[in-house]
# Entry
Amino acid sequence: MSTIIRRRFNQVNAIKDGEDQWCTDSRQIKQIIVDHFRMLFFEDAAAATAFKTQTADFPRLSLPLMQVLQQPFIGDDIVLALKGMAPYKAPGPDGFHAFFFQRYWHLVGDDICGVVL
# Structure
């Protein structure tokens, strides 16, 4: 049942075209999406220049903040990050939720820190 609900939720039934009109035909929707990504990844000099000028506006970090970010982390940092995680959110690539590591840290903590550090 959850799969059916997710499929229904993830469908695109209508989309606005470039002229701000709603399209409901599946072929038109597909074409609008393909055209959008073609334009997004189309490489021309004007687009590349516009992108470079947009990314150049990021603020600079102060020297003390850069030094803090460059310090190596320690086991306590791993524990703090783990405790800050919601216990039952999406599992990691190993299939375990954060709850497992939070609950059994006394058993797996040394091994985890050894791998991460």
Q: What stands out?
A: DSSP finds seven helices and two strands in the chain.
